[in-house]
Amino acid sequence: FTSTRERKQIVRMAIGRGIRVYHSPNQNPYTVLIEQRGQEQCLLLESQAIVSISAAEGDALKSSLVKLCDAYGVLGNLKYTSAQGVLHYIALVTGCVSMGKLGTSEVYKITDCKVLSLRGYSPDEEKVAEVKKLLSSGAAFFSWLSQGGGDAVDLTMSAQRSHTRPGRSDGRFFWNRTLHLPYIRAGISTSVWLLRIMFGSVEMRTVYVGSKQAKAVLISRLSNERAGTRFEVRGVDDDGHVANYVETEQLVTMDSACTSFLQIRGSVPLFWEQPGVNVGSHKIRIARGPELSAPAFDRHFSQLASEYGSVVIINLLGSNLVGSKEGEATLSTAYQSQQSRSQHQDIPHILWDFHAEGGAKNLDRLESKVCNIVDRLSFFCSPGVDGSA
Q: 319, 351 in Cβ contact below 8 A?
């Protein structure tokens, strides 16, 4: 960290532990002070209040505080309701690895974090151990602007949404959105002080088009609208949100030009479940009949049309009514039947028994089925500043 005089001269080139946290152990009220490299302000957290103070005021306070830790970034404040009442925490990124550069931003995977009690009582942190485990699982990603002004690329947004809705995040994939709220209410700039995280996966590869260098990127974004583990959360809810919903973007960039194609996947949009404890004993059970399922089914596909335009259903469920895939075949039949009586009958529905067809090894067979309707689909293309694409 630098003196107040030197802060203005810093140009951030590579991410480091730019956050330093101080606290007042064994004092009441408990105080937390946050410094960020390159910022002329500090944040003061005390009794659920958050205020921005000058670096000089922060320097004066530090004489009565103790350094708690350094971090790469702040995720926000978490509330947890326990038998003792509402407990408050601050979540910090303390470990990350670079996945590569996307535009002017660097993309990082979170490998470790801290979720610290905002009353200075470390046993409180055991109550949110599962939150810390989730954040440190290797499935959370954030972006960071390596140099210059402006904002880092928003991983929650596809290239097309970033182009048509600049400055906005997609709440479906913005997992720590509620952790930002205390800062928003306090008038703190979240774009300066907080990170946005997406859960899913990111893969980047450098490719060459003739003599030009391009980047191929796959970003899979897991939705937070009906989150849950396999077998525990299945199907649709009354709002039309389905379990295991993932948006995957195939992105190719060259200089400032890019192309983007989106594919989505999710649980069958019916009310169904798989009760049972042991793997193999999870028999599929339809929880609601066609009439009671219709509103949520229609809501789901209306949302897809609003977000993505034309879509095509590729049904990967098993089709054998005998054996281990019997439940899948029953669910597949119910899915087709529900669509046939809905207002979304015009959506092509391709049956593709993934395992019976040989899985990923025989995707050419799937291509032959899809090629006839591919004209219904489109991709996004943004030309470069020189007009090239």
A: yes
Measured in whole angstroms, the distance separating CA 367 from the mean position of its chain's CA atoms is 30
What are the beta bridge partners of residue 140?
199
CA distance 64 to 124: 24
User: What pLDDT score does 151 carry?
Assistant: 82
Nearest to 228 by CA among 249, 212, 242, 211: 242
Spatial CA neighbour of 35 closest among 16, 12, 58: 58
Which amino acid is present at 205? R
Q: Give 297-326 pLDDT, tens digit per residue.
A: 999 999 999 999 999 999 999 887 666 567
**Cα–Cα distance measured from residue 196 to residue 179, given in angstroms and rounded to the nearest whole number:** 10
How many whole angstroms separate alpha carbon 337 and alpha carbon 334? 5
- Separation CA 117–CA 127 (nearest Å): 10
Q: Scanning the structure block, which residue is given the tokens 């702040």?
A: 74
Q: What is the pLDDT of residues 170-217, one digit of tens each?
A: 999 999 999 999 999 999 999 999 999 999 999 999 999 888 899 999
Tokens 């879509």, located at residue: 311
- Structure token digits, residue 311: 């879509």
Mean pLDDT of 334-353: 95
The DSSP secondary-structure symbol of 154 reads -
Q: Report angle CA 27, 29, 31 to the nearest 5 degrees.
A: 80
Pairing of strands 198-209, 140-145: antiparallel
What tokens were used for 13? 């080139």
Ordered strands of the 41-46 beta sheet: 49-54, 41-46, 31-36, 19-23, 66-71
Q: How confident is the model at residue 287 (pLDDT cuts 50, 70, 90)?
A: very high
